[in-house]
Amino acid sequence: MDIAAPAEKPLFSWSRHRAHPGRPAPFLPMSRAEMTALGWDACDVVLVTGDAYVDHPSFGMAIIGRLLEAQGFRVGIIAQPDWQSAEPFKVLGRPRVFFGVTGGNMDSMVNRYTADRRLRHDDAYTPGGEGGKRPDRCTLVYAQRCREAFKDVPIVLGGIEASLRRIAHYDYWSDKVRRSVLADAKADLLLYGNAERAVVEVAHRLAAGEAPRDLASIRGTALFRRVPGDCAELHADDLDSADEGAARRPGEIVIRLPSCEQVEADREAYARASRVLHRESNPGNARPLVQRHGDRDLWLNQPPIPLTSEEMDAVYDLPYARAPHPSYGDAKIPAWEMIKFSVTIMRGCFGGCTFCSITEHEGRIIQSRSEGSILREIERIRDKTPGFTGVISDIGGPTANMYRMACKDPKIEAACRRPSCVFPEICPNLNTSHDDLIRLYRKVREVKGVKKVMVASGVRYDLAVESPEYVKELVTHHVGGYLKIAPEHTERGPLDKMMKPGIGAYHRFRQMFEAAARQAGKKYYLIPYFIAAHPGTTDEDMMNLALWLKKNRYRADQVQTFLPSPMATATAMYHTGVNPLRGVRHGGSDKVEAVTGLRQRRLHKAFLRYHDPDNWPLLREALKRMGRADLIGPRPGQLVPSHQPPGTGKAAGTRRPVRPGGRMQRFTTKGVPLHK
């Protein structure tokens, strides 16, 4: 079901930039030699990316490049250039229309650093998995080099790194509020979210001679401009009460966020800006936002209208080579190796988890492909992807089981400002039927040459329990021994700040899962994810989670510590100590206990790895301080022993080699079992 929002020009209805653009390129060119072979004297658009170029629809630059190619533009790719000078950015010559700059499929800072700000030495999006092939904040750096290379060429930012930094934002790695990346990059335009609609219109209008400043009305864009005189400004000082009077104001409404300087100086103002931005995220009712940066106004248009199923099908049916660029030779690109036999069936997520960036980037409206498009892609994998053995490694998306789910009434959907359709409980207006997904699973299994179809995307278990038939179908046919789900915590305090269901929903799903496994004659296991140090989590909460893990015989060998990604609601909690899920008012805001100190973050991580002897000294000290020394000892109900094995306890919180032992189930946050 498509959202009832203002009509947009169909994605593929634009007149081609070139009436006869020629046959699609085998790969979008990365060199002058490839351009010459195609008969090109210049590129119209040059896309600069922090990832290796893999011509596959799981990689953003491939989607944008092939989409613009289908519109009649000549598109080149500069992948992971040496950023020390502007010369590598000149390799394809001066683009006629614009430079498109993206950090890649991951935020470059998340890609490069751990939650403890430690340097990673690998990069899944680089040949050989080699780290260090992109600079920190690479969107910003690449844009500056593009400007040095060709001063007068428009620069358009896109991708998740730009999307999550489109306004003034808290930057965890520098521990300060930074300006919009558009300001620091000195680019002309920023596209946020899944930007197919915006990039097509931008390309055609720039090619027709319009200047970037003329593109101020395109949804999903941000740029610096003056607020039009006929706009009525609604200040975000108290959004909830201000909304009541908004309808009485004449003209178009634009919401003025606290300025960059205000959110930098006043944490409550930062929390208010975060609350407003997330409330204005529904394409059906969102209003433009404006935020002052120094002497300029940053203007954010409303979110893009989601693609229809027909449009998504056309995007995924574009002539991708479905392989890395030949210039990489035999080098393995880990991200490609992981997804080359998987299929994306939908986008978006209406869960609204506060620590997750999916909603901020892809939106909460589910965009689903048709059965026919999905089946065609599986046939292409079967026929064209080397090494295919008959196993589809994943069929899913941001979640495994939101396919074709939507509000029962498009009018209600277009008017809604709830940040989640499933918290604090499932909205009665949400259609939670899994029938379409079950039917899809059955059709996929019937494709000739397909032996097994796995579901590796995370299952939203609070939705799955609404459909016992789905759980049975999933367990009987689509689980390969282990299934990952994400309860994240057991305690109500942190779960409320995450906007996650209570642990009772997990127990109900586990019962259904185990019953279905027994009926199918299988021995399958759940892999639960948990987060340490999330805002709103106390030491007692982590202690109780550790006791739950021990009682349920789980041992986590890798754990997830909360990482404050830009623009997430939980990041606002972490930085401000204020809960933006509720009204933000000076002196009347709901406070949140944020876990910011390195020692406390390590303690919370240690509770998740209560079984690791290296963590026992830290846990004993904490339990004594908490008045829970009764949990120290050898009995089953106690958490850590009182004795310390020789040679352990010197590196609390660090990872140790995996050792088989006991009868407990080990799991990792990546869903790869280490021992059971």
Descriptive notes:
The chain has 676 residues and is α/β, with parallel strands linked by helices. The protein has a domain at 1-220: Rossmann fold (3-Layer(aba) Sandwich), CATH 3.40.50.280. Helix content is 32%, strand content 14%. The strands form 8 sheets. It has a 10-stranded mixed sheet, sandwiched between helices. A 3-stranded parallel sheet has the order 21-22-24. Strands 2-14 form a two-stranded antiparallel sheet. Helix 2 (60-70) crosses helix 7 (196-207), helix 10 (267-279) packs antiparallel against helix 22 (569-576) and helix 16 (435-445) packs parallel to helix 18 (468-477).
Rounded mean pLDDT is 91
What is the helix tally?
24
Count the strands?
Answer: 25
Helix content: 25-40%
What's the shape?
globular
Work out the radius of gyration: 25 Å
CATH topology call of one domain: Rossmann fold
Q: Report the top-level CATH class of one domain.
A: Alpha Beta
Terminal CA distance reads 42 Å
* Residue runs with pLDDT of under 50 for 5 or more positions: 1-5, 241-250, 652-676
- The assigned CATH architecture of one domain is 3-Layer(aba) Sandwich
Query: How would you classify the helix and strand content by structural class?
Result: alpha/beta
CATH superfamily (homologous) name of one domain: Cobalamin-binding domain
Biggest sheet, spatial arrangement of strands: 3-1-4-5-8-9-13-12-11-10
The biggest sheet amounts to: 10 strands, mixed
Strand content: 5-15%
Short description:
32% of the residues lie in helices and 14% in strands. It has 676 residues and is α/β, with parallel strands linked by helices.
